[in-house]
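[09:14] KT: can someone run the structure on this one? pasting the chain below
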Amino acid sequence: MSQQQTSGNEQAKISQTYNQEGFIVPIDVISKQEAKTLRTDLEAAELELSGNPEKLALLKAYPDRLLPSFYYLTRNEKLIFAASAVLGPDLMVWSAGLFIKEKKSSKIVSWHQDLTYWGLDDVAETTCWVALSRAHEDSGCMKFVPGSHKTKIVPHVDTYSEDNMLSRGQEISVDVDENTAVVAALDAGQASMHHGLLFHSSGPNSSGDRRIGSAIRYIKPSMKQETGVRSLVSLVSGEDHFGNFKIAGAPKGRLSEEDFQLCRQDNEIKNRILY
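[09:31] RB: done, structure tokens below
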């Protein structure tokens, strides 16, 4: 069997499982040492920006726009391979924000569906959540309800809870059978991939280390914001035949002021959508 046939078979298996369950876990993406290097780069940047809350918030929302190392992570061939299996060869990154739970933190993510508040016109999106530190149940890893992506968007309520990491504390307002949930434990360097309609959540971090992950949101270029605004994306695979988004190039440098300004402009657009 040729390498092309083998790759095709592997992608078919990913697609089949994803269509049935709504997620794939785990995916081996990078080595633990590579994950540690990314974490070191991020934490050095956090330290450099510690006196500037505005820039620190932008770093957490746009690591791929401000740190070249994260820009290249979004283009990792194993992530592209997995995302292409469910979305096709043309891929954009809509965002790659960081979800960080500090050690011994009570922060949680309530049961929700990702696409509830993003203002996108279709469901042609998948999230690859890449762990840069150990993400197991004690550190607040994600949990998925298999097959729940086959529903449409269900009613949510905005709790604005202080311990909720979501923008509006959005939470599914119908009963979720947690007994059916699957724990998506990841080691550093591994990723999960889940559908934008899948019910998922995560608990507090009771461990002695930070839980750090980048949620890379891949979309088809055919998607667009319902308001017609052209939010900032990166084209990471294939071609864009639609022009529905503003395509960014590689970062100008590490924590470049020009890149910060680009992020500020997009953050204003995203805040209008999310809030």
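[09:33] KT: thanks! The longest strand covers residues 211-219.
[09:34] RB: yep, looked fine to me
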